[in-house]
Amino acid sequence: MDEYESKIYKILKSEFNPLALEVRDVSGGCGSMFAILVESDKFKGVPMIKQHRLVNEVLKDEIAKWHGIQLRTKAP
Fold first, then answer.
1. What is the pTM of this model?
2. Taking CA 72 as the corner, what is the angle to CA 57 and CA 69, rounded to the nearest 5 degrees?
């Protein structure tokens, strides 16, 4: 994991205390597109669209710099 992937990972880890968390730069290393998986108890009973909104809100400053995001969320 490179430095920027680690930064995103730490942000998500501190906010969601995930059971599973993956952050991958899928842009070929330029940091403009990420594939992210977050599995968290905070998502229990929350519709998927709202789960995605929660993640987007936490990462909004970073997402503004990106071309795209492949986001998967789930509750355990």
1. 0.93
2. 60
